[in-house]
Amino acid sequence: MRLSSRHSRVSPVPLRIGAALAGAVLALTGCTGAAGPAAPDRPVAAVGPTGPAPTPDPVQWKECGPGRDCATVEVPLEYTDPDGKQIPLAVTRHRATDPDRRIGSLFINPGGPGVSATETVASIDAAHDKGPYSPEVVARFDVVGMDPRGVGESGAVRCLTDEQRAEQAAEDRDPTVPGGKPFGKLLTDARTFAKGCLDHQSPEFLASLSTDNVARDLDQVRAALGEEKITFYGASYGTVVGPMYATLFPDRVRQMVIDAPVDTGLWQNDPLRLLDDVARSNEETLDAWFKTCRAEGVKVCAFGDGDPEAAFDALITKLEAKPLRVPPVEGLTPGGTLDGAMALEAVRAAAGNRTLWPTLTAGLLAAQRGDGTALHFVVSFVTVAPFGAPFASLQEPHNAVRCVDWPELGKLSEHHAAAKKITGRGERLGSRAAYSALNCASWPVENKDRFTSELTGAGAPPILVVGGRLDNVSPHHWAENMTKRLADAVLLTREGVGHTSYRMSGPCVDAAVDAVLIDGVLPADGTVCDDVPPGTTRPPAPQG
C-alpha cells in the first residue's frame, strides 16, 4: 500500500473553486507537534462485526502547519479480525482557534468517495473567510479530517499507470454512443481498470474499503483522540458515512449535519437507479442555465442570441465533426483536443455549480470563436465522474469504494438496460452516466460481509439534513428520502443550483448549520433558505 508524504500539500477545498476557475478562464480566453487536550479516561473503541476492536493508542500529533497537526492512526484491516493486520490512516486536525471555548472535535468528510479530508482541513487557513467552515466553528472545534482507507494519504487506491491515464485523457470521445465510447471499448477499459487495481493493491485491502469500515475507522480515531462523542459534518458521499456512523454508534454522536445527501437506500440496494437519478439532475441544472441565460437577455448572456439551446446543440455537433486543438498553457492546462463529448463534460460540471455559470458562458462563447481552451480547462480540473468525485485523478478510489459498497453488478444486461433507459430520454448530458457503473461489473474482489441494514441512526440525536433544490449530484428528493429514513431528522432546503449548501449559499444555511454544530439547536422542519447570491450567466468582465 502506497503512503506518500503528507505534510506539505494544501489543496483547495473541492467544489469551492468557482473564483479560481473564473480567473483562469479570463487568462485563457482573453475575456476574461502540539499536544491535544488530555483525556481523563480511554473511551471505548469501535465495535466490529465480531465484537470490540482493540483500543487504539493515543494519537501522537506532529505539527504540520500553523495551528495544524498531523498523525497516523493504526486500525484493523478487517474488523472481523481486529487483532490481525493493521493499516495506517492519515489524520489532520486544525486546532480550535479559541481553545478556552473549545467544544470538542468536529469530524468532517467532504465526499467523493475519494476526496481527501486531510487536505480539506489543511485548506481552512488558506481559504480565510471563504473557508469550508465558519470562523465560529473553527474557533470552537478542533476540525478533524481522516482520509478514509484507500483515499488520499491513507493508501490511495491506484489502478492505472501514468501512461494509461494519459492515454485515456487523450482519447477522442463520441457523444453519439452511450457512455461516450463503443461498448466493447468501455468493457475493455473496465477490465483493464480492475486488473490494474489488483496489480497495485492486495485483494484484502480492496475488499476492506467499504463505508461501514470507514465508520468503524472514524470511531477508532475518536477513541485515539480521547473523545467520548463526536460532532460530524458530511457532504455528498460523506452523507453515507455520517448515517452509517450514527447507525453503528448512535450513543457516540453529539451532533450531526449532512449536506447534499445521498439516498442511502439506493446506494445500498439499487445503484443503477441512483445513477439514473444523477443523470436527470445533470439535465435539470443545464436547463436552469439555459433558462437563466434567456431570462437575463443577450446583453448579459450573448451565447445563442436569445436561443441558447439551439446554439448549444449546433456547437456540440460542430465540435464533434471538427474538434478544436487546444494548445498547452504553462501552469494551467496540458492542452489536447476539445470535441463534442469533451465539451459536454465541461458543461455538465459547470452547469451544476452556479459559481461556474459565468465561466460556462465565457467558455461557450470562446468555443464558438474557435478557442476551446477554457472548456478544456474546466473538464481537465473538474469532475468527469457522474457521481461526486471532484477531480479526475480521484476516479480510482471513487470506484473502489462504491464497488465494494454496492450490490453485485456483474450482469451486463443490467448495464445495457440502464443505459437504454437513460439515453432513451434524449437528454443532452445523460449519456455520460449510461455505463458509469461498468467498472463494478468487472470488480475483482467480493465484499463478503457487505453492510445491508437500513441506515436509520436510531438512538442518535436529531440530524440536520440540508438539501439543495437543484443539485446536479444529489437531487432534492434524496434529501426528502433521507429525512424520512432517519429515525429523527429535520430537513432544511436551499433554493437554487449547486452541490452542497453550507458556506456556499448565504447566511441562512450557514447560521442553521452553525446552530446545530455549536449549540445543538435545529431549525423548524421544512425550513427553506434562498440562494444568495442567485446564479448569473454573465461572463467575467474583460481585464486590462
From TrEMBL:
SUPFAM superfamilies: alpha/beta-Hydrolases (SSF53474). GO terms for molecular function: hydrolase activity. InterPro entries: AB_hydrolase_1 (IPR000073), AB_hydrolase_fold (IPR029058), Pept_S33_TAP-like_C (IPR013595), Serine_prot/Carboxylest_S33 (IPR051601). Residues 37-50 have a biased composition (Low complexity). The keyword Hydrolase applies. Residues 37-58 are annotated as: Disordered. Pfam families: Abhydrolase_1 (PF00561), Abhydrolase_4 (PF08386). Residues 106-291 form the AB hydrolase-1 domain. Residues 1-34 form the signal peptide. Residues 430-529 form the Peptidase S33 tripeptidyl aminopeptidase-like C-terminal domain. It comes from the Bacteria. Keywords: Hydrolase, Signal. Belongs to the peptidase S33 family. This is Alpha/beta hydrolase fold. It comes from Micromonospora yangpuensis.
